[in-house]
Prior knowledge:
By secondary structure, the chain is an alpha/beta fold. The protein has helices at residues 2-24, 53-56, 67-76, 93-102, 117-121, 126-143, 167-186, 215-234, and strands spanning 36-39, 44-51, 80-87, 110-114, 148-152, 192-195. The chain has a 6-stranded mixed β-sheet with strand order 1-3-2-4-5-6, sandwiched between helices. Helix 4 packs parallel to helix 6 (126-143).
Amino acid sequence: MKYKLAAIGLAPLLIAQGLYVRHVTPRLPEPSGERFGVRGSGPPLSLLILGDSAAAGVGVPTQSKALSGQLVSALGSEYGVSWKLIARTGKRAKDILTELKAALAETFDVVMISVGVNDVTHGTSCRKWIHQQGQIVRLLQSKFLTQHILLSSLPPMHRFPALPQPLRWYIGLRAKQFNSALEKFVKTCDRCELVAINYSCDGVCMAADGFHPGASAYAIWAELAAGIIRSRLNKKRPPFISSGDS
Length: 246
């Protein structure tokens, strides 16, 4: 409550800083490369990567260095991965939900979701965001028959170089509030698991805009997600069978 009161007092400055950041921050393109394919050998695994600019790989030049490429590469040594990337810059949870409702039904064993940064910066309430996350999860389970849903936490926005103070403080607190709520939500869903992102925000891990991940951050994120996926799938005996066969 105290931070909300402080934010009200700082509102003119926060708005001015927000406009300034939007004006001066470089707008990096989404990387080139395939957004679907098949890779690896072993038990079949259908994977969907869904979300915003980070899911799309903004911050690196090619998809091979982005989240999708590095995650598929990590899983391809053990599974025959049939994968698809549906992600665009600027997407919020409500946009993901709308897109899934309009999409043709497919079966995905695992869905990896990255959404929330734009909800934080555009003023979506935490309560509404969690409600929308719940709708996304239920739709993935019912329409896409997804057995494993990985929900990525918001990155450490309180350390983003692109954000000046006190905007960084305010955005960082909002992101932490979202993450706390997401952690509680995940505990209520046995098909869900949290991917807790916590990469460094120095020049090595961040992209040139000081806002998006760089290749090193995507590698950390992808390896963490791959480890969670392996752990979940290895609990199944006999070896994992595609949900389309269940």
